[in-house]
């Protein structure tokens, strides 16, 4: 089944770009919305995505999160897949990317470290990712490439086996082979985007590059390095790398020089505090972000030049952040990308702007997706606040992209 949403004739060569900013409609990730059935997903498109579209008044795309039960239902029941495709058609929603990071219920009362399970040493993770690829191939219009983001192998605390990294290589080689065969049978190119995250097996840019080079070396022994290069790459989550206090311009340059491809970019911001001990009002505001559902890793820059990491935002970490030797702290909490401050707290929005400028210098155009999945814990799940908030994020990102890629009429095509 091949589905067409809008007339994308000018995109027939895939990711057409001015500079390297994708001309595909800007996407947002549906993992912000709960839903463990196909029916719930379709209802979300009607009740949440449609009002966002109405506010944005520009073509937009939806990056579907298909939890394992939904992916399984869609594959087992072709009629459900047709219903989903029909709804996307009716709303003129393009789906060119999936988020296959959360495997199960991403909106249960407590997610925390469970989001990293099953990890990339298990057959369940490979099977799920391949299922998502089959579904995306069915939803993609001809001539447009697809991408699927996935977890950075596993969570460090849960992956103590010294051979963990090497155990992931066969799965990714098998996945690349599967995607190569899927391309042969469907004509659809789908690229995997491994997403580094603080305190995971791949958290820094250097760790991601080192793992990828090892993967290529292993794949080369069986003659599979070419298909790995074609299908396996990176999801650059700006929030995650900002939390690591990385220079986004330097990180993107390193990635480019290494030969690792950025297949997808998550447009996202983190929380930031300068000199926390001198800003007790910011610490008070930060207490409001300590919540039971998601893991909020912390990275602190110390006065002795060292960097210290903590697993989650809680009473103990709040006390440590407040110590006099902490120069700055960043917290993995996806906050609205259009905001530079939340109360007395800063955000890493400036890192997002730097990243967009660097991405515009690439020789190819990664997929761009807004991924602020925490709206339900920021706004106590108020649907109208979520709709208004996501629409405001679209407006902000559109304005940034138009500064990078001015068109003759002052507008970005399809954005």
Summarize the structure.
The protein has helices at 38-56, 68-76, 78-90, 123-139, 164-186, 205-221, 225-231, 238-243, 248-258, 280-287, 315-321, 349-359, 375-378, 383-404; strands at residues 17-18, 21-22, 27-29, 61-65, 97-99, 146-150, 190-194, 232-237, 262-267, 269-274, 298-302, 307-310, 326-335, 341-342, 345-347, 367-370.
The total of beta strands comes to: 16
Please state how the strands of the largest beta sheet are arranged side by side. 3-4-5-6-7-8-9-16
**Assembly state here?**
single chain
Q: State the end-to-end distance.
A: 27 Å
The succession of helices and strands, N to C, reads EEEHEHHEHEHEHHEHHEEHEEHEEEHEHH
Q: Describe it for me?
A:
The chain is α/β, with parallel strands linked by helices and 415 residues long. The chain contains 14 helices and 16 strands. The strands form 3 sheets. It has an 8-stranded parallel beta barrel, surrounded by 4 helices. A 6-stranded antiparallel β-sheet has the order 12-11-13-10-15-14, sandwiched between helices. The protein has a two-stranded antiparallel sheet with strand order 1-2. Helix 2 packs across helix 3, helix 2 packs across helix 4 and helix 5 packs across helix 7. The two termini are 27 Å apart. The N terminus and C terminus are likely disordered.
Fold topology:
Layout: E1 17-18, E2 21-22, E3 27-29, H1 38-56, E4 61-65, H2 68-76, H3 78-90, E5 97-99, H4 123-139, E6 146-150, H5 164-186, E7 190-194, H6 205-221, H7 225-231, E8 232-237, H8 238-243, H9 248-258, E9 262-267, E10 269-274, H10 280-287, E11 298-302, E12 307-310, H11 315-321, E13 326-335, E14 341-342, E15 345-347, H12 349-359, E16 367-370, H13 375-378, H14 383-404
Parallel strand pairs: 3-4, 3-16, 4-5, 5-6, 6-7, 7-8, 8-9, 9-16
Antiparallel strand pairs: 1-2, 10-13, 10-15, 11-12, 11-13, 14-15
Helix pairs in contact: 1-3, 1-14, 2-3, 2-4, 4-5, 5-6, 5-7, 6-7, 6-9, 9-12
